[in-house]
Amino acid sequence: MNFEDVAESIDNDVYLRFKEALELGNWPNEQKLTEDQKEICLQAVMLYEAKNQFKENERIGYVDNSKKTSTCSTPDSKSSVETGPSETISPIRILH
Fold first, then answer.
1. Cα–Cα distance between 17 and 5 in angstroms, integer?
2. Is there a contact between 7 and 48 (Cβ–Cβ < 8 Å)?
3. 89 φ/ψ angles, rounded to the nearest 5 degrees
4. Are 89 and 83 in contact (CB under 8 A)?
5. Per-residue model confidence (pLDDT) at position 64
6. In sequence order, what are the beta bridge partners of 82?
7. CA-CA-CA-CA torsion for 93, 25, 30, 13, nearest 10 degrees?
8. Which positions ≥6 away from 10 have C-beta within 8 Å?
């Protein structure tokens, strides 16, 4: 039995625990997830969602591109660097 077989056989409770652990960065007992555990949980969650035909916008890691803005600068931003005909890069201001 390989990883995909095991991951696809997890039940809803295990899926929800893995998803919560990924969201919080730790297990229910407050133990931090290691990088290997994060990777394994993420792969299992993604396989579970694919197997159960979750809608794209309900899957872990979904980014809604319809709300994407063209620039992060404000209209009154005065310092910028021109990079091309229609592209402007503005510095980030850090407020203390």
1. 19
2. yes
3. -110, 125
4. yes
5. 76
6. 88
7. 140
8. 18, 44, 48
Instruction: State the Cα–Cα distance between residues 70 and 32, nearest whole angstrom.
Output: 36
Residue 23, token pair as written in the block: 């969201």
List per-residue pLDDT tens for the chain, 96 residues long. Answer: 677 777 667 888 998 999 999 999 999 999 999 999 999 998 898 888 888 787 777 777 777 777 766 665 555 555 445 555 566 677 777 765
Which residue, among 70, 69, 74, has the nearest Cα to 93 in the 3D structure?
74
**0.90 surpassed by pTM:** no
**CB 56 within 8 Å of CB 64:** no
DSSP state of 60: T
